Amino acid sequence: MIVEPNVAVHAEGTRDKILAAAREVIARKGKRGATTREIADVAGVNEATLFRHFGSKEALMLAVVQNFCGALELQDVVDHLSGTLEEELYAIAFAVMTRLMSVRDMIRWSLVEEEFDKNMFDQANWRPHTLIHGILVEYMAKRVEAGDLRGEPVKLALVFLGSIFAQVIGTEKFPLAEIYGSREAALQYFVNVFLNGVRSDH
Question: Which of 26, 61, 105, 158 is surrounded by the most beta carbons within 10 Å?
């Protein structure tokens, strides 16, 4: 069956409205407190439309996380990197931090609540943090193979991402997280420590 372009665009627009509404309701009430009826009301659709697009509340929760995680945007940044190792790591760090800052509400509710359906959320082939980490592991592996970095790519990616994640969360919770000054200064510091360490040569 051929789908008319305007029909496809309308369906995509409806899907986007539902995803945005779900994020808004979850931010206020948490995953367990958010109901499909309220999400549909906020999106301006009926529940039948919501279920036609997503099938179940669990599937909608997964789609919300996937939609806003920024894996596609990060992959695009990595695919178009050019410059020194330091410049590339800064570009990656900036992309990751920018995305994390934009989804701090989602980070908060994901940290304070258990996953809505553990079996579904444990599917490693789509988990957002797994996607982001995987992109970084691939980048680190290429740099290790080229002799620019040493260590295990999986661990290198975790350490790199961990510093950025801690800064995003810490800036909101702990004033001392601002000691770096600007966001750019913090990223430059993280990249420098990642590449050069902090132990004195003396």
Answer: 26
